[in-house]
Amino acid sequence: MSSDLQWLLLRKNNSYAVKRVEEGPIFSKEPGNLTNIHSWKYSGLANEKTITVKETESGVQVAYRKKAASPRAVHPAVSTISVRPRSGPRRAAGVTAKLAKRGYRPDLRAAALARVSALLVAKKEKKPAPPKKTRGKKAKTA
Asked: Does 17 score more than 80 pLDDT?
């Protein structure tokens, strides 16, 4: 079944669509949707090539469907790349650039980078606040 036909069937009614306000935007909770916007471009169900970003205990996992994968293949049809939280934003940029350079959905590069970076920032441990220094008269008397 073509991806256009799948989108025509899924567009109006599916269990992942989130319609909060009648005149407002429609969001989506489907896997593989990087921006959570209900549109054909970002749909993880209607497109054959999708990029999925998941948070794991060890960091962030970027998964994408292999090019010539058969649905009945013995080996998994999804390839994954892990990004550790210590790696930083440069590693995340490299992972998303690698996919775009190979021609695998270059239109999703910015969305994937934003999603990976947001998850890495949320996972980062905050430094403890340094103790406050006493100033003014209290500092002179101590």
From this structure: yes
User: From CA 89, how far away is CA 95, in angstroms rounded?
Assistant: 10
CA 100-60-43 angle, 5° bins: 55
Of the candidates 71, 70, 69, 88, the residue with the CA atom closest to the CA atom of residue 79? 69
Query: Using the 8-state DSSP alphabet, how is residue 73 labeled?
Result: -
| Nearby residues of 79 by Cβ (< 8 Å), 6 or more positions away | 63, 64, 65, 66
pTM recorded for the entire structure: 0.76
User: What gap in Å lies between CA 65 and CA 109, rounded to an integer?
Assistant: 15
Residue 61: name the closest of 38, 88, 85 by CA: 85
Cα 84 from Cα 122, distance rounded (Å): 13
CA-based nearest residue to 10, from 31, 35, 39, 32: 39
> What is the distance between the alpha carbons of residues 128 and 108, in angstroms, rounded to a whole number?
36
Strands 51-56 and 78-83: unpaired
Q: Summarize pLDDT for 97-142 with one digit per residue, the tens.
A: 888 888 888 898 899 889 988 888 888 888 899 998 888 888 888 6
Residues 39, 27 contacting (CB under 8 angstroms): no
